[in-house]
Amino acid sequence: MGALFNLLFPWLAHGEMLKVGDAAPEFSTTAVLGDQATPVKLSDYRGRKVVLYFYPKDNTPGCTKEACTFRDGYNDLQRWGIVLLGCSIDSADNHRAFARKYGLPFPLLLDPDRKIATSYGAANGIPILGLDRRVTYVIDENGKVLKVYPNVDPSTHAIEILNDLGATDATPVPPQATPTPAAD
């Protein structure tokens, strides 16, 4: 019955989220960083921890706050050797504009067909709008899921991850009422 429902109403289907210890599904897509778009695969990051966060849509209030929190904690993530990747269904042009507007220093992955989100159980988290759910996975150096964040507070998420990974000298950035756009 469930398979038939998913076949007839794919926009309402929810994938099962991965669990700690699961193998992180391989993906191959395009990553947008600044004005550059380059091919990327999860296996490119073997040997490093990867934070892969799924978010519904560029330039929406919660997604902007989350992206800016990651931006503000990015140096700490890099210092600890952690790769950060954001992923949504937005186009390359939308990702470029979003990254430019808010000075995002990390890659945003393209997932227009929701293959990545589906394999990670993030697809159709907001079915009425056709948007993915907000969920983050930390993937260890060997490609296994180390941590799952199914309930994210966009304003503190980056610090939460750093603290959970033992980066105890991470200093929280004071919350801002509105994320600061990058200068044009």
Description:
This protein is of the alpha/beta class. It is 27% helix and 20% strand. It is built from five helices and seven strands, in the order H-E-E-E-H-E-H-E-H-E-E-H. The protein is globular, with a radius of gyration of 16 Å. The chain starts with a helix and ends in a 20-residue tail after the last helix. The N terminus is likely disordered.
Strand order of the largest sheet: 2-1-5-4-3-6-7
Strand proportion, as a percent range, falls in: 15-25%
Largest sheet: 7 strands, mixed
Number of strands: 7
Based on helices, strands and strand pairing, what is the structural class? alpha/beta
Helix-residue proportion: 25-40%
Low-confidence stretches: 1-13, 170-180
Overall mean pLDDT stands at: 82
The secondary-structure element order is HEEEHEHEHEEH
Number of helices: 5
For the terminal residues, how far apart are their CA atoms?
A: 52 Å
Dominant shape:
globular
Radius of gyration: 16 Å
Provide a compact summary of the structure.
By secondary structure, the chain is α/β, with parallel strands linked by helices. Helices cover 27% and strands 20% of the residues. The chain has helices spanning 2-8, 61-79, 92-102, 115-119, 157-164; strands at 28-33, 36-41, 50-54, 83-88, 108-110, 135-139, 145-149.
Which helices and strands appear, and what pairs or packs with what?
Elements: H1 2-8, E1 28-33, E2 36-41, E3 50-54, H2 61-79, E4 83-88, H3 92-102, E5 108-110, H4 115-119, E6 135-139, E7 145-149, H5 157-164
Parallel strand pairs: 3-4, 4-5
Antiparallel strand pairs: 1-2, 1-5, 3-6, 6-7
